[in-house]
Amino acid sequence: MAIGDVKTSQxxxxxxxxxxxxxxxxxxxxxxxxxxxxxxxxKAPASSLSHALRWFNQIASYTPAERKAWAAGVSPLTAxxxxxxxxxxxxxxxxxxxxxxxxxxxxxxxxxxxxxPALIAKSSVILxxxxxxxxxxxxxxxxxxxxxxMEGLLWGASKLVPVGYGIKKLQIMSVxxxxxxxxxxxxxxxxxxxxxxxxxxxxxxxxx
Length: 208
Description:
The chain is an alpha+beta fold. The protein contains seven helices and six strands. The longest helix has 12 residues, at 103-114. Belongs to the EF-1-beta/EF-1-delta family.
């Protein structure tokens, strides 16, 4: 699905629809494609555009240094009718450094590197939350899952996936800070909703 100018109402509506079952505009992890679209929008979408707003706030939760470190990605925005590729972020800090220069220049280079902010290790985790039977209220179960809050935890998109016999599982995405959130503890807290949840599986785990 190609998206037009996100500064227009139609473009934002297209983006909201595009993100209905996606956490990011390109793949399962944030990329320069997200930065490109995020910067073009400039401000948070209206609350009626819930998917676009959720995505906008998620990208905004990262620091500029983290966003700069993301890889390139295919943007859904169109240029001449075709999706465009967002370039990888350039490291401007190194452009004016002569690695074969004097000791003073090498020292300046080392100092410049030491002042760069440390990146926070994050992971994208997709969880499969399985109910007991087809009579489980899946909407309420999702509300229970999203009610879990931890420092370093951000819930993303979700969808219901049929597993057979009229039963559907909740597949929900999240972004975690590795040093602050334990996936094992997170799954245990979800399983504590024992009136709704039969089991929790990790469907995907990717370092960001």
